[in-house]
Specification:
single chain; about 475 residues; Aminopeptidase; Alpha-Beta Plaits; 2 domains; eight-stranded mixed sheet; 17 strands; about 20% strand; elongated; metal-binding
Length: about 475
């Protein structure tokens, strides 16, 4: 997961700068973590009050038994990976570790896909669907003291985004499903991706022929989050807001200041979130009445506009540019048409030349893909996990998170329909908060067991049904 579009250090999320204007950087970060912790507790209680875990049966009981049997070894795997983090494009040791583990399970393994990418192929005993699971492998450049006793041996490089946990869960899933391959009807691909933090790994694997060698019909992934360990969540469509820079261009003239003022007003008028809205307060993201877990959430159907609209002049043209966020593709895609209609009805229509989203650069351009979960698969996945492990295991979300996060799993979703989950990794009673990209990031390792159980069951359900 990238934060604030590929930042490599803790930052206050883009859209929350208005809510947190003062204080030192560290104070800002911990204030956000505290808000998320409180909000998540409310969400957890509101959705599944005092609910017992459901006891799985059949193949899912066998999956749980196998996960229990290998759990201690998976904890050791995670801690080894945590001690040896490797930044984007340098995941050599991690890739070798993954390769050897998969080979020991008897999987077919492809290496060197898009750099240090690894693909494990598990074929069931019968024909069926082909399903893929992705785990990202890279770590962060992050100059902070690792709070774990098994902390990083590489100064300034840490797994503060939880990718060590992602790799461990995927290896655990491969172990569990290989143990039960006789009951798999189909094929499972385990894709271990390099370079997620710089948003390059997925595209590199695709360009290197990933989907020429495998042909998944569905694809899934998960990312650690500050929700409680034992909980997964997702939603159809956007999980994170999309961000784009838009350019409005006119012929230059003596009346440039008028057209600039007019266009700035047009851009600011796109925002449909009042400055006084509770939207801007981070603690409300998971509030049970207005947060992302409530069907009536305020974090849906929104457009926001950054305040610093810019103006440039070149070759007899004047260009006004603004940075927008939107909670859905349909809202973002409609913006140029909305602006065009207003300009056509204005005194500046004869000077108008073009409206376009930025195509160069990356942070706010059309080059950056955004997570877009398949609606049907998302609903089936949440219902499936909850049906096996209880309603407290998997919940639907309704709001779109407006804090600048993203994941290049989105490029895979452009090729194959899929679902991206948030996986809880916190234990509030123990003071363990799994907030990625923060200096005191820690993970409750019981989330490894939950992840292996839930997602192994999901994949076998998807291949067999």
């Amino acid at each position: 997961m990238t934060l604030s579009h590929m930042c490599q250090e803790p930052k206050v999320p883009l859209l929350h700068l208005r809510a947190i204007k003062t204080g030192k950087r560290t104070t800002q970060i911990f204030k956000q973590i505290n808000y998320l912790v409180i909000g998540t507790c409310f969400l957890w209680g509101a959705v599944c009050p005092a609910q017992e875990k459901k006891a799985p049966d059949g193949i899912h009981k066998a999956i749980q038994a196998r996960t229990d049997a290998i759990f201690d070894s998976l904890v050791l795997v995670r801690r080894d990976l945590h001690r040896h983090p490797e930044i984007s494009g340098q995941e050599k040791r991690t890739a070798e570790f993954v390769t050897n583990y998969l080979l020991a399970l008897g999987l077919e393994v492809k290496v060197g896909v898009g750099g240090y990418g690894v693909v494990g192929i598990l074929k069931g005993k019968q024909g069926g669907k082909k399903i893929a699971w992705r785990a990202d492998m890279d770590a962060l450049k992050f100059d902070a003291q690792d709070p774990e006793v098994f902390g990083s041996i590489h100064k300034g490089i840490n797994h503060y985004c939880g990718h060590d946990v992602h790799v461990t869960i995927a290896l655990g899933m491969a172990n569990v499903l290989a143990h039960h391959r006789e009951q798999i009807k189909g094929t499972v691909y385990f894709i271990f991706q390099p370079s997620e933090e710089n948003y390059k790994g997925a595209k590199s694997m695709i360009s290197d022929g990933l989907f020429e060698g495998i042909a998944p019909e569905e694809m899934y992934a998960a990312h650690i989050s500050p929700m409680p360990s034992g909980l997964v969540a997702s939603k159809p469509g956007y999980l994170f807001a999309d961000y784009k820079e838009i350019h409005v261009t006119y012929e230059a003239s003596a009346a440039d200041e008028e057209v600039i003022a007019f266009t700035k007003n047009l851009l600011s008028g796109l925002q449909n979130v009042p400055a006084s809205s509770e939207f801007w307060d981070t603690q409300n993201l998971m509030d049970p009445t207005i947060g992302i877990g409530n069907p009536e959430t305020i974090f849906q159907d929104y457009i926001t506009v950054k305040e610093n609209v810019t103006v440039s002049r070149q070759d007899g043209q004047v260009r006004i540019s603004g940075i927008l966020s939107a909670s859905s593709a349909s809202l973002m895609d409609a913006i140029p048409r909305r602006l065009q209609r207003s300009i056509d009805q204005s005194d500046f229509a004869d000077r108008f030349m073009d409206i376009a989203f930025a195509t160069e650069g990356f942070l706010y351009s059309t080059q950056r893909a955004n997570i877009q979960n398949n609606s049907s698969l998302t609903e089936q996945a949440i219902q499936g996990i909850a049906g096996i492990y209880g309603q407290g295991s998997a919940i639907p979300l309704y709001g779109v998170i407006p804090d600048g996060r993203g994941d290049d799993f989105a490029y895979f979703q452009e090729k194959v329909p899929g679902v991206y989950f948030l996986l809880g990794g916190s234990n509030f009673e123990k003071g363990i908060i799994a907030m990625p990209h923060t200096p005191h990031f820690r993970v409750d390792e019981t989330c490894i067991k939950s992840g292996v159980n839930y997602f192994s069951s999901l994949l076998i359900e998807r291949t067999n049904n």
